[in-house]
DNA sequence: CATGTTATCTAAGCGTTGTTCAGATGGATC
DNA sequence: GATCCATCTGAACAACGCTTAGATAACATG
């Protein structure tokens, strides 16, 4: 993370677009999503409130850029989790745990990622080609073998993704704290829930 | 739905709290969550912008009231779905379909429900006692029989709930439209995804 | 019935937000 | 060196959440 904070103040501010996105992520991490106003971002970047409009059409477009960075980071996290495991079933669970962990570690960013995806015609790029979504599908495909149909594969991926997203959003609910403690921590809790989801039921049975 | 819209304008406006919540739901349904400002609610209810503050501490508390109505409505929807089915497994699927359908039919309200629950110490009442959450747990308990432990039951409920919530949030993504059409409609799509989730894997195997 | 108390509502205002626009600034091009 | 164009600023607008002071009407008490 190369923070280019208040290092003097250049003439025209070399690369504002990037500085703005970084400022946004900084605010997001420290003060939460509620504090993420365009003016605050401009303030953090050290420019006037109108400056961002020369780089982004509106606030939404800035958030889109932030969200995109989030998807890239999630991509990397899933890639790492997939490579760190050998067994098919464990790989699937690890993928799920990595997904939820990412959401838990970057809650505000995760929120922005989905808020931006909603009400858009297409899914974010990262869920289409070479992205996180495909990583999940490929993992499932590898585990399921050749006998699985294209439709079943797609459905299983969607099911797994929805389960992960649901758990990612809800695992922060404080009502679950006691259960987590009972199971021995966050990760044990996540694994237990994923185990009960039985994403592989379809293929285990058939 | 007894709308008490512009029927003259009383002296002190008989029951503003209720009128405000109804106005909020009306705005939510027609203009979406982005248009839901306190001032807009007051306008819709025909009172001054400051009037709501005599009934709700702040905007968040108004949304809490709206969210509460949402949970009650979801409760009823799940109750109906549970009674309309006899077989255990089908009952579980129907419950899931009813849940997601509710979210799809009231997307803005559903959003408010979860936005209000987040960052709160406790889950909403409706997820605790006699509420939707318990309906799911009871259904699972009935299907699983006596041999299931308390922890497994809780985990299975959480798993099912997360899957439902995830699908509820994502089933609106337009990227899935083609798959939905291929499967023959929204409900067929939902059932297919739930089938691939295999919520009962744990009990089917054991 | 007159009086005072209390709940409710309005009017006006503060600080903040997203966004626009006219004008200043300065790097790049001829 | 004059011109051009991207970039940035300052000021402004409407709308927002929220507060305060004061009006209004229901209610309770004498």
Biggest sheet statistics of chain A? none
Question: CATH homologous superfamily of the largest domain in chain A?
Answer: Tetracycline Repressor, domain 2
What's the pLDDT, averaged over the residues of chain A? 87
Largest interface: A-B, 46 and 46 residues
Oligomeric form: homodimer
Number of helices of chain A: 10
Total domains of chain A: 2
The low-pLDDT segments of chain A are 1-8, 202-206
Helix content of chain A: 55-70%
Tell me the overall shape of chain A: globular
Instruction: Give me the count of strands of chain A.
Output: 0
What string, H for helix and E for strand, traces the elements of chain A in order? HHHHHHHHHH
CATH class of the largest domain in chain A: Mainly Alpha
Structural class of chain A: mainly alpha
Instruction: Say what the CATH topology of the largest domain in chain A is.
Output: Tetracycline Repressor, domain 2
What is the radius of gyration of chain A? 20 Å
Give the DSSP E fraction of chain A (strand runs of 2 or more residues).
under 5%
For the record, the CATH architecture of the largest domain in chain A stands as Orthogonal Bundle
Q: How far do the termini of chain A sit from each other?
A: 47 Å
């Amino acid at each position: 993370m190369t923070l280019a904070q208040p290092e003097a103040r250049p003439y025209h501010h070399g690369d504002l677009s990037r500085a703005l996105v970084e400022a946004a992520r900084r605010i997001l991490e420290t003060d939460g999503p509620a504090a993420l106003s365009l003016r605050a971002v401009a303030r953090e970047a050290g420019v006037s409130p109108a400056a961002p409009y020369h780089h982004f059409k509106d606030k939404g477009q800035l958030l889109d850029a932030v969200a995109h960075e989030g998807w890239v980071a999630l991509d990397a996290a899933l890639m790492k989790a997939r490579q760190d495991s050998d067994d098919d079933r464990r790989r699937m669970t690890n993928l799920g745990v990595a997904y939820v962990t990412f959401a838990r570690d970057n809650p505000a960013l995760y929120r922005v990622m989905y808020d931006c995806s909603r009400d858009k015609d297409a899914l974010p790029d990262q869920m289409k080609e070479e992205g996180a979504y495909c990583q999940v599908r490929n993992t499932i495909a590898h585990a399921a073998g050749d006998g699985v149909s294209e439709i079943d594969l797609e459905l299983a991926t969607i099911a797994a993704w929805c389960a992960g997203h649901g758990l990612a959003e809800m695992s922060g609910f404080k009502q679950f704290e006691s259960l987590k403690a009972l199971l021995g921590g966050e990760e044990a809790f996540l694994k237990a829930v994923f185990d009960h989801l039985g994403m592989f039921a379809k293929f285990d049975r058939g």
